[in-house]
Please model this.
Amino acid sequence: MIPVSLAPEKGAYVGLQGKHAALKAIHVSIHFDRRLWREDIDGSLAHVAMLATCGILAAADAAAIADGLRRVAGEIEAGTFDFREDDEDIHLNIERRLIELVGPVGGKVHTGRSRNDQVATDLRLWAQRKSMEIEAGVRRLGDALLEAAERELSRGVVIPLYTHLQRAQPVLLAHHLLAHSEAIERDAGRLADARRRASECPLGAAAGAGSGWPIDPRQTAAALGFDRPCRNSLDAVAARDFVAEMLAALAILMAHLSRLAEEMILWSSQEFGFVRLSETVTTGSSIMPQKRNPDGAELVRGKAGRVFGDLQTMLVAIKGLPLAYNKDLQEDKQALFDAVDTTSLSLAVMAATIRGAEFDAARMREAIDARDGYADATELADYLAERGVPFREAHGIVRRLCDEAREAKLRLSELGIQRLRAASAVVQDDVLGRLSVDAAIARRSAIMGTASPQVKQAIAEARERWSK
Amino acid sequence: MIPVSLAPEKGAYVGLQGKHAALKAIHVSIHFDRRLWREDIDGSLAHVAMLATCGILAAADAAAIADGLRRVAGEIEAGTFDFREDDEDIHLNIERRLIELVGPVGGKVHTGRSRNDQVATDLRLWAQRKSMEIEAGVRRLGDALLEAAERELSRGVVIPLYTHLQRAQPVLLAHHLLAHSEAIERDAGRLADARRRASECPLGAAAGAGSGWPIDPRQTAAALGFDRPCRNSLDAVAARDFVAEMLAALAILMAHLSRLAEEMILWSSQEFGFVRLSETVTTGSSIMPQKRNPDGAELVRGKAGRVFGDLQTMLVAIKGLPLAYNKDLQEDKQALFDAVDTTSLSLAVMAATIRGAEFDAARMREAIDARDGYADATELADYLAERGVPFREAHGIVRRLCDEAREAKLRLSELGIQRLRAASAVVQDDVLGRLSVDAAIARRSAIMGTASPQVKQAIAEARERWSK
Amino acid sequence: MIPVSLAPEKGAYVGLQGKHAALKAIHVSIHFDRRLWREDIDGSLAHVAMLATCGILAAADAAAIADGLRRVAGEIEAGTFDFREDDEDIHLNIERRLIELVGPVGGKVHTGRSRNDQVATDLRLWAQRKSMEIEAGVRRLGDALLEAAERELSRGVVIPLYTHLQRAQPVLLAHHLLAHSEAIERDAGRLADARRRASECPLGAAAGAGSGWPIDPRQTAAALGFDRPCRNSLDAVAARDFVAEMLAALAILMAHLSRLAEEMILWSSQEFGFVRLSETVTTGSSIMPQKRNPDGAELVRGKAGRVFGDLQTMLVAIKGLPLAYNKDLQEDKQALFDAVDTTSLSLAVMAATIRGAEFDAARMREAIDARDGYADATELADYLAERGVPFREAHGIVRRLCDEAREAKLRLSELGIQRLRAASAVVQDDVLGRLSVDAAIARRSAIMGTASPQVKQAIAEARERWSK
Amino acid sequence: MIPVSLAPEKGAYVGLQGKHAALKAIHVSIHFDRRLWREDIDGSLAHVAMLATCGILAAADAAAIADGLRRVAGEIEAGTFDFREDDEDIHLNIERRLIELVGPVGGKVHTGRSRNDQVATDLRLWAQRKSMEIEAGVRRLGDALLEAAERELSRGVVIPLYTHLQRAQPVLLAHHLLAHSEAIERDAGRLADARRRASECPLGAAAGAGSGWPIDPRQTAAALGFDRPCRNSLDAVAARDFVAEMLAALAILMAHLSRLAEEMILWSSQEFGFVRLSETVTTGSSIMPQKRNPDGAELVRGKAGRVFGDLQTMLVAIKGLPLAYNKDLQEDKQALFDAVDTTSLSLAVMAATIRGAEFDAARMREAIDARDGYADATELADYLAERGVPFREAHGIVRRLCDEAREAKLRLSELGIQRLRAASAVVQDDVLGRLSVDAAIARRSAIMGTASPQVKQAIAEARERWSK
Model:
């Protein structure tokens, strides 16, 4: 046990006196790393408790320090804490205040650790917590999509499937919405995998060689909710792949949100007219009361690139960096903070957008029924094919009928049963039913298809998976 | 069952006749997607077998097609296959040849599917297979690192730990090498997670709405080794997050390789002199026989940015893209191919580099023992602290001793026991032992530390994990 | 002058015998750097001529080498040159063949230079030439846009201006097209600036310290069309900002092309229907003859990210690289080649797309006249404001009229003069004329506005600038 | 002239009442765009003066507004301005306060313009000004490098040239330093080119179609220091290539700074020992007084990736964006602000680092003279070659001598004249002089070479160019 007098006080820190103004400006991080205050205090509390358990610190000292740390937390929460640039970063700010509050004994909090393992622990802890918050945000957006899908399924709303932004075939709007919920469900999975992989506590690595004191890294890891301590002290202080992996998961999630946002923008244009977005997520005009600019969705789309940029920032920072700790690694924080904030906000904006969206079933149906689409051409070709007409011949027949219908500005079915039968002898009276939108949808009943029972089941299964 | 005459022949494909030369040049993909030939044939074999099981195709037709597909595979393997630009891509090249070989029945291979689900299936299958190959490459590099660690541990080789590229403390070289094996073990985990998540088969999505035929997507998924079919047809053809996630895993892996490469470059400089790289992975000079340029490591370092770029390419391609299929998605292949090739090669280069590296224990020891490093200053401060000297005072004492030693160009221990005792009364005869490199290493015996038994166990545990 | 026997033959090159397969695979570059063959030969011709002028090489030797180099060029052009992987790169392939053709004297070509300055010269030369080709491609697209603008101006075609993809105000289609030509004109300027800045010849830097022979770098620079030699030998071999700058110019150009491509995709959707793209740049369907998928434009849009990735690749490769030459720099070539090819092709595709586009004036006019747009609301508010109604009050009046018109499904002007006058006493009979599309356009007659004379002049001025 | 009552007051702005919290959070920009306050006020002053000149605004109104704008500027400078989130952005904040100060007439400031052209003007103006500041920062770093080069030239300090981080040949340290000043001189040129190209004023474009009032864009452009107005109103509000180009210039500059930073880090390691960095730009240790961690240089190196990320952010934001204004464009500001701040700071840090660097001539000389480098091998081969020994043979002779010297742990020259003469009969007494470092440097006297007179002239020429 360390004698009571042994306080690694502020003296341990050399400070920025006499430094060039530019060095100070580039070096000081308190204006952004103060966001880690709660994790820093939690980390110190776990560390101090472990020091006591291991007999490195007297119980009374540990209690005094823990008490002081809680008082610091209280001050920060109350907004009365004095963050000082002179103290460089959140770690030294808290340590300075701790010593002011509890006296020299406070300096012992740093026994057996270094800023290198301390900062890595803080950031991992913060990332784990934020990752769970973002996953909750993903779930909220997933809920919004599933609810909308359920509602639109019950209304039987149909929308064109687009390939190349050209109308191709009718599908249920619910089915389309589920495609987005599938995508973000994988995003949630990526976040969870990244979290599990990063669930290793760096405390105990000290400056990078491991601590020279008889500490127990397992205890601190467990107390902070990590699965285990890191396995190698150099890796513990040098690794930032946990940041890069989380940023990659966020970047892909933002790419998915940008696709959903693009559809909301497209669909709310006068040309599409498929959706009317809520006034709460759009902005308007003082003279045109009907105007609804999809600012929210546009910003989400625009911000995707920002998170891609954050990911690149982190990858570049670690590229070619020798072990163990280099100051370049300080660039991990702002990139992660920015990506987390951006993604959280974008999720909330898209959830509100989906919840407030009024889909215009009539406009969508109009698009499907348009006389220039010929979504039913595939159906007619399939009909002929099933009845033995060779594909090549079937395609030729349908192509000629399409040409004819286009000239007459009619749908294929509007050409009439006689005309169709004249085109091929296999055509029966059931052909017109087959050319209907409902029939086309109902036939797609295999797994992953757009038939109504299949979509209903897909919603139910998604609900079950999300509820876990 | 479809009547025998029903062949969706080549006629189904409109072709590039009459297209602008620029459109042809940008559209044709056979020069790069031919790499997917095996996956395309495997996918078709599974599809045809399923069509037969479901009664959509007669058993004889299915057999004829399967036989034809195998002949096509044989021709490609033998190098006799005629890849044609007129047939645009690998799918149409194979289908064209299949019909040439087995007649019109070959056209039925495309019944109930579309190029949209076909190409997505091919690329997923290819990615799964390549991901496993790369994971094997990671394991080979891991083996090389573990072997080197074992050898250097048995030799007791010590190296300075660097922070800010300044010597900080002595650690075992084996411990340093294990830090790299830890990092790439997580890379292997990322690849496996991505693989598991992407183990969904798109076959059955057809153009994006699901197939109108009574197919069984579960059978094709199982036959191709996927865990299950995709759950939503739009998502099946529109999703490329499986590519982005794999690229992100490769980008992080390349970042790790670039760090290892950087150390090999640094350490093989005359200034460090810590390692002599094998002639097999370096290039030389015709007149300076001793010259060994670390070209392999430099190229690995330089190529990290290339894979970062591939990742960016994919993310940007899907940003803001509405569902379902858009031609932009064709940009998935070259980015993935390039990243896979680059990473595979880089892994092989680094494994060969590590296997052939001769570490110079004497030069490393010299660096630790250098009279300008004072790695033992921390040890002396800890020694005083344990004996009750307050940290601040202990630091002050050591700082003065360092100044004195620097002037005298001596190590702290070379100041002698008298001088140390004069500096602080708590100093005992055991202090000189404590200031030794071996003692400093031995004290770091907690989990993740550099003490020899700890490192030995870390190697054993790593071996066990890798062997699974 | 060097004695005739002095041939720095193949022996100067150590070769890849005994190298690890992975090192060979990562090191050999002949499969991609063969594209530099013409620049390599041009560089050697200039170098040899200079060596002769400076008296370092006998005139006869120089003539023999020059003759040999021209024979090598002939073989490569004829497709009979044997590119060998054993000779690593294009420089050694050519040198080897030169010596085969002219004997040992061929080895003197390398006197006073090194591969470090040679490869930098080749790539600069290639970049300069390709940059001019791409600028010509930009001009061709600019021509296509100006021609389309002239045609549509003469037809008086009007299109909605979109903000937030919502219809805002009517503008001339010609005016809209000119916006794109403005953007790419700046791209051409960026390429020219980059070219001018990179117009420095590295020959003479040798390995990086400068040549030890009495060479004249000014002569080689002039012979190769550079403005001057580089100013510093380390910089000459280490600098790759000329690549990064050109890639940045290409990336921005691709971003611009992706915007134009996006509009072609949007406008050719059935929902917009503003343009019918030529069959020569779209792909179709075998059964739906009217189908025109905008594959060309989609691929251009998708490929923007690819060039962004190439730029990132180059920036990352040089990040943190010490001087002078490092092998990482070999990564400059493939990134530049890919970006140049991609951009050239994309320019050609977009030029063909614009040339073949048939704009549907009726559909655009319909969009402007739609009863849900109220583009005339701004005009009415301005009308009131000019007549002294305070803005706030004018806006309130118009807002109420818009509400009323929306309910009645009428345009503002269709509310009738009585209704408008009832809303504000300042309204005169001229108000209806003011609310017309033509009036709104005609009023925007200041510089950069959409009024017809202004657009006409803008086209004329653009033609003049482009013709320089 | 607009009647005095015509005030486009706050009423013109709909506000965020009733908006979803997420929309507000993503939409409001006052917390970052307040940095544009001075440009916004300058733009409004120019606009109001033009409105008066054109007779759109009464002189008294214009005077009142201008006076109010100056008072707003005063409040912001004094720190008493109340920035309100409810007012969204800097434009509305200033307009609101202006109206508070001067009454309803203040609303007329917005006559004939829109936020679309206003924000584009503000950002261009800000970018122009910051670009000049950064160019000044580049010059200061250039000065520091030139001064150091002059000093080290006068001291005759020699450093090894490295290729592949292997010692290759001796060069003057001054020559090495000049390589960096060359690189950043091109960066300054890129900034200037970007500035010139962006020197077009968007005012007059209004929402994108041009203003409907009889304004004079030339007057505002001139008043704000732009070369001319933009040429097309859609382009004026939609273009952000001026941001992307400036970001590209900054990214390349940061890549250059990261190379210089890397050398400072390498050279200040104990292994190299070539430089002792000033305490003012390094951080230390409380117990090891000699410790100097190169934090400043490390952070500059790490931050390079950040600016690469900012560039990617902007490119991605504009990718695939249709004309004219979309809210995505709001992402231009934070990326540019961050890159400008980061680069400015990095320039200052590197200038301070160079100014405070003490180069250790003895350690550099030691590296050159090291018995394992054989930098003189090239010289000896050249010596033989000049005297008629064929290159291949010369290389073989030198290779054997190197092997022999290495075994004997001697330099080539230390083998003695007899041994050298025994190796080749052409060797004369002058050979030892030729093998000296000074001779090797002096021979490289052609342009761009490292010979002292050449370096002296290069410094003088650089000074002259920079002084312009």
About this structure: Residues 1-12 of chain C have pLDDT under 50 and may be disordered. Chain C touches chain B through 62 residues (CB under 8 Å). Residues 65 and 78 of chain C are 20 Å apart (CA to CA). The first strand of chain C starts at residue 158 and ends at 163.
